[in-house]
Automatic annotation (TrEMBL), chain A:
Binding residues annotated for [4Fe-4S] cluster, in chain numbering: 20, 23, 28, 45
Cited HAMAP family: CdhE
Binding site for 5-methoxybenzimidazolylcob(I)amide: 374, 380, 404-407, 467
Quaternary structure (record): Heterodimer of delta and gamma chains. The ACDS complex is made up of alpha, epsilon, beta, gamma and delta chains with a probable stoichiometry of (alpha(2)epsilon(2))(4)-beta(8)-(gamma(1)delta(1))(8).
GO biological process, one term: acetyl-CoA catabolic process
Function of the molecule: Part of a complex that catalyzes the reversible cleavage of acetyl-CoA, allowing autotrophic growth from CO(2).
Molecular function in Gene Ontology: 4 iron, 4 sulfur cluster binding; iron ion binding; methyltransferase activity
Organism encoding this protein: Methanothermococcus okinawensis (strain DSM 14208 / JCM 11175 / IH1)
Name used for this protein in its record: Acetyl-CoA decarbonylase/synthase complex subunit gamma
Record field: catalytic activity: 5,6,7,8-tetrahydrosarcinapterin + methyl-Co(III)-[corrinoid Fe-S protein] = 5-methyltetrahydrosarcinapterin + Co(I)-[corrinoid Fe-S protein] + H(+)
Cofactor note: Binds 1 [4Fe-4S] cluster.
Length: 490, 314
């Protein structure tokens, strides 16, 4: 595994080396390791904040800052964090800060619609593997080009929710007015070649008066983008996001630009392109809705086709470094794959995806309840417990340490075996909790049955293949299984 | 302000593999090529061949297929030749994958010679190249593949698959004797892929006759493992490792097995869109990780994936 580019030793050299423990770590070296793994901030060492260490601190922050700047917007306690990446491929380290997903709200909607849509976004949740996958922000679109309507929409959203807000208008005057009502640090969409000078002037002033914001620079020309970042940085506007245009009529162009910019930042160390990238799948949605439904042979309803193609764009962009995205579609079937792909891409490949092995009582089991054995792979564990909860299954769930492997993987790999099962039974003292000696195994664990019976002395019953059928299976069979066993072992 | 397109130099290239044979050379007609890339991205160097989708069909009706896949094939599932024709005529299939599922001793134990007979029929029914698949039974598959390879002699099919659990030498022999390609299938580990390719090549198989399948995990069921394995293999290939510079294949249909794709659940919205989108997302992720040929099932997914694939090569 390739590790972060900076070594803990390089970091340590710049620390005070007093081992005073004020940072909460046992030594400066331990703190250095935390810093290296992005688990701590330089400011947490109080000595580093003293004037004597000012120079070292600056050096250290520079050294630790990733080639793609980390930029956030929203509220201090509810942030959308973008960027922060150090590598081109996730296997080289990990990708950081999962892509915030925003849903657009047009200011042409009625007050009620605005409120409901914002509420929907805030409440939306899809649960997977013990994680609540959620949407992150709303993009208020100044479709009316009317500053009053724009402001009103912002107020409604702020009143109804605590969602971070992106302000979308190409009209600098309207942005200026909107900034007066928006309470959080907002993301402004966007500065373009046409409005750049005017918008920049306004933003410089706003910044001087203490207003905080992130600014999206938008152009389909990468040199132009670079020119704009240079100009912004000159005036101290450094929380930038780049939008190289999402073009549904030729999405390959968009994907190319995302790669070019990211490669320039990471492999060519081009600081002026080292900013998060914004993708706009919403463009694909409206492209299809406006008469470009290439799926019409199968799906006539253009809003459904639009949802599919929008998700396709979103997922392609997720695979190509998108650090934030704005979508229009809100149907669950569309958002599920996007949220799932995001979760997959941003899981840390350095960590095993496992839960604590052991005994988990599900739904107040008693001495007559079944004992069921699964694995400690997070995906397996959460799928199984999710199904059990849904079907009101009452059981003792034994979670075998399979080193975070799924059922068939660990059967094939030898971790789902008699020896491990025996140890688990002893450690959890399950024998004292039930008056039988029966374990229900997953269908996929059938090949390990003989070994488990032999090593543990327990009777194994092969259950269903999928845990979603376990509730049904137990309802039909458990009583008989238990009685048969009791009759035989009386 | 200056900026240059960041183009990387690659020592190696990806091999080009051909399926089918033109009529002029005595084949049935359609020829499909995959691979041949000299760079990772199209902005570095135009990509020579568009990604290819091969339609899955089965040698017996598959009652287990989700309803919203079955709805497209219900009328032809009894007859694999008609099934293949429908894929080509109605859905524009570039290639067909026949899974000889019924040869599995645990299913129908269809004799090898019957599988070969069906293969002959299929070759007559359509003019596109074939991927020939077994049932997954490690003892029987090499025999099935050998018999089908013989009747398809010279058609440059893809024999699916050679893997470490079965007599891969027999599969390679069939490919060499009857002029076919071999799918070299391993589980998500780039070193295993390299090892199997090395064995196949040292057994005598031409490296240009190999397509790798590093295993496609469905979206949500380990797709990130596949992303890593495929990206690493493609990059090693381009860097010049001749043992892994083969084009790649993805069993994208796996996605349909994910519960989020097939399960009825009002909280998850309409399956009619959810299922194809799950397959599209899985395939598209593999596409952007370097895969060249996709085994897929749902006509909507196939249309959506091919359309995107085309833009990447134009
Ligand atoms: C991802 C994956 C991997 C990943 C591992 C990821 C992980 N953390 O587990 C990696 C790359 C590491 C891997 C490695 C290997 N793998 Co692998 N892998 C897979 C893959 C693609 C998906 C597995 C998965 O995530 N399933 C999802 C989880 C949720 O399913 P599950 O744990 O089975 O749980 C379900 C059911 O079992 C049931 N259930 C669970 N508990 C209970 C309890 C009861 C009582 C009941 C009734 C039901 C039940 O409900 C759950 C929800 O549906 C499968 C193929 C596939 N598509 O299934 C191959 C597969 C499992 N792997 C396989 C093999 C051979 C291997 C290796 C041995 C390869 C090798 N030669 O090195 C290694 C072994 C590694 C080891 N153990 O040391 C084979 C197994 C074949 C077999 N059955 O013998 C498979 C089937 C692929 C194949 N077709 O050949 N693999
Ligand atoms: S607070 Fe600073 S000086 Fe003290 S141990 Fe931590 S890193 Fe070292």
């Amino acid at each position: 595994m390739i590790m972060a580019k900076v070594s803990a030793m390089d970091i340590y050299k710049l620390l005070p080396k007093t081992n005073c423990k004020k940072c909460g770590e046992s030594s400066c070296m331990a703190f250095a390791t935390k810093l290296q793994n992005k688990k701590a901030m330089v400011e947490q060492c109080p000595i580093m904040n003293t004037p004597k260490f000012e120079k070292n601190k600056k050096k250290l922050i520079e050294m630790l800052s990733p080639p793609v700047k980390e930029v956030w917007f929203g509220y201090p306690d509810k942030k959308c964090v973008m960027g922060g990446d150090e590598v081109m491929y996730r296997y080289e380290l990990s990708f950081f800060n999962q892509t915030p997903l925003g849903i657009d709200i047009s200011d042409n909607l009625s007050d009620e619609e605005i409120k409901n849509r914002a509420k929907y976004v805030e409440d939306f949740v899809f649960e997977r593997t013990g994680e609540k996958l959620k949407l992150d922000f709303v993009a208020i679109r100044n479709a009316s080009n009317d500053p009053e309507k724009f402001k009103k929409a912002i107020e409604i959203v702020q009143e109804a929710t605590k969602l971070p807000i992106a302000l979308c208008s190409l009209n600098p005057d309207n942005i200026e007015k909107a900034l007066d009502v928006v309470k959080s640090k907002t993301m402004i969409y966007a500065a373009t070649k046409d409005n750049f000078a005017e918008l920049l002037k306004i933003l410089i002033q706003k910044k001087e008066s203490g207003k905080k914001f992130a600014l999206v620079l938008s152009s389909d020309d990468i040199k132009t983008l670079k020119g704009m970042t240079k100009e912004c940085v000159k005036y101290g506007i450094e929380d930038l996001v780049l939008d190289p245009h999402t073009t549904p009529e030729n999405i390959a162009e968009t994907l190319d630009k995302f790669v070019m910019i990211r490669r320039s930042a990471i492999e060519r160390e081009d600081k002026l392109l080292g900013y998060p990238l914004l993708g706009l799948p919403i463009n694909s949605y409206f492209y299809v809705l406006n008469g470009n439904n290439t799926l019409s042979k199968f799906i006539e309803e253009s809003d459904k086709a639009a949802g599919i193609i929008e998700a396709r764009t979103a997922n392609a962009l997720l695979n190509r470094y998108a650090d934030a995205m704005i979508l229009h579609g809100t149907e669950v079937w569309e958002l599920m794959p996007i949220l799932t792909l995001r979760q997959a891409i941003f899981t840390d490949p350095r960590k095993p995806q496992a839960v604590e092995p052991g005994l988990y009582p599900i739904g107040n089991p008693d001495e007559n309840s079944p004992v069921i054995m699964t694995t400690n792979f997070s995906l397996t564990f959460y799928t199984v417990t999710g199904d059990f909860e849904k079907d009101n299954v009452k059981c003792w769930l034994l979670v075998l340490d399979t080193e975070g492997k799924a059922v068939d993987v660990s059967v094939a790999g030898g971790q789902y075996c008699g020896e491990n099962a025996k140890n688990l039974i002893e450690e959890t003292k399950i024998e004292e909790k039930v008056n039988h000696r029966i374990i229900i195994l997953p269908g996929l664990a059938a090949p390990a049955r003989g070994d488990i019976e032999e090593k543990t002395g327990w009777t194994c019953v092969i259950g269903t293949r999928d845990s979603s059928q376990v509730g049904e299976f137990l309802k039909k069979n458990w009583e008989k299984i238990l009685n048969d066993w009791k009759a035989k072992n009386a | 302000i200056d900026w240059e397109i960041p183009i990387n130099k690659y020592k190696g290239h990806i091999r080009e593999v051909q399926f089918g044979k033109p009529k002029s050379e005595g084949g049935r007609g359609k020829v499909v090529k995959i691979g041949g890339q000299k760079a990772l991205y199209r902005f570095e160097e135009p990509q020579p061949n568009a990604p290819v989708v091969t339609f899955d069909i089965f040698d017996m009706p598959m009652p287990g297929l989700p309803k919203n896949v079955r709805q497209y094939f219900e009328d032809v599932m009894q007859d694999p030749a008609e099934w293949a024709k429908k894929c080509v005529k109605e859905f524009g299939a570039d290639m067909i994958t026949i899974h000889h599922i019924s040869t599995d001793p645990k299913i129908k134990d269809t004799p090898v010679k019957d599988a070969a007979k069906l293969m002959e029929e299929l070759l007559q029914a359509v003019d596109v190249p074939f991927v020939i698949g077994g049932s997954g039974d490690p003892k029987k598959d090499p025999l099935v593949l050998e018999a089908c390879a013989e009747v398809a002699e010279g058609e440059r099919c893809l024999l699916a698959s050679a893997n470490l659990d079965l007599d891969y030498k027999k599969v390679a022999d069939a490919a060499m004797k009857y002029d076919h390609n071999v799918l070299s299938w391993t589980i998500m580990d780039p070193n295993m892929a390299k090892d199997l390719n090395r064995r196949l090549i040292s057994h005598g198989l031409d490296g240009d006759r190999i397509v790798m399948d590093p295993t496609t995990c469905s979206l949500g069921y380990g797709s990130e493992f596949s992303i890593n394995a495929m990206t690493r293999l493609r990059i090693s290939g381009l860097k010049g490792d001749e043992l892994v510079n083969m084009p790649m294949s993805s069993g994208t249909t796996n996605a349909i097995g994910a519960r989020e794709a097939w399960m009825k659940n009002p909280k998850w919205g309409d399956r009619a869109y959810r299922l194809p989108l799950w397959e599209i997302t899985t395939g598209l992720t593999m596409l952007l990780s370097g895969v060249d040929i996709f085994m897929m099932l749902h006509p909507v997914s196939i249309t959506a994936l091919k359309e995107l694939g085309k833009t990447l090569t134009t």
